[in-house]
Specification:
Elements lengths: L1 H19 L2 H31 L1 H6 L1 H6 L14 H32 L4 H13 L4 H14 L2 E2 L3 E2 L1 H7 L4 H25 L3 H9 L4 H30 L2 H6 L25 H10 L6 H35 L1
Antiparallel strand pairs: 1-2
Helix pairs in contact: 2-14, 5-9, 5-11, 5-13, 7-8, 7-9, 9-11, 10-11, 11-14, 13-14
Length: 325
Amino acid sequence: MTSTIGGSARRGLEALERKQRDTSGVVFRSLISLCLLISLLLIGVLIYTVVDDGWFHLTTRPIDFLNGTLRSRSIDEQLGVHQGLYGSLWIGIFVAVIAFPTGIAAALYLEEYAHKSRLNSMIELAIRNLAGVPSVVYGLLGLFLFVERNEILGFLPLGWLVTITGGPTVASAGLIMAILVLPIVIITAQEAIRSVPQGLKEGAYGVGATKSEMIRSQVLPYAAPGILTGSLLAMSRAIGEAAPLILIGAISGGLTNNPSLADPTQLRERFTALPIQIVTWVGQRGRDEGFFGAAAGAIVVLLCLVLAMNMAAILLRNHFEKKRG
């Protein structure tokens, strides 16, 4: 007994000495803390600069700025971001309606129904590779499918796609953005579904549930926080991308009317979006310096939109985590 107590005390003393000598751990912890501090400092400076540059539009005419339209001069009292907000919101709706259910269903199939075969492994590898493809490539795909091409390989007709979208319209932009974030939604949903404890599934089977009932009652509620977080972060990316919209045909001028979300016929009209407005206004600051402040105001509006989505993701995740217990 005495020797056992002595051995435990010696091991504890050795562990304490190792902890005291763990200088590499202290250095590593200090290094990552420094990196975090630098990152927060850079983000803070960036946000302060943008808010400061757009302060005039955000404080003196906030409602007019949100309701305003594209204008050729920055001093125009009707200058604003309404048309860009309209395009960005419709892109978000397309992503939510098309990419989310499709991606979650694909993840459920791959995790719960698909057999472990070489074909399925190749499909999963392809999905992961597609998540890393540059967004401009998706823009070319959208241009090919929804805007210009009438056929593929010389015999497969594609004209019906162009007929549905109407060419360079917000419908084309929403569809290609849904395709862009689809691999991300599938991957995040797969990770969330994979984290469901096996005991929960076996418990459902133990009380006589079928596979679909087990998925509905156990897998989806448990995985909901992860799925929601990944899906809304994917939507944030879709709303902030500019390159695919440029290739699809988003315009930066000539839209004189304020479109309405209540009028779906305008989905087949020319469009713009907040990232396009920002890029255009920054490019126009050479001939009119006032556009730089307008671009900063539009950036703040876009940041608020993305932060609102992230906040929604956090609230929903917390809600389902509490519900899950």
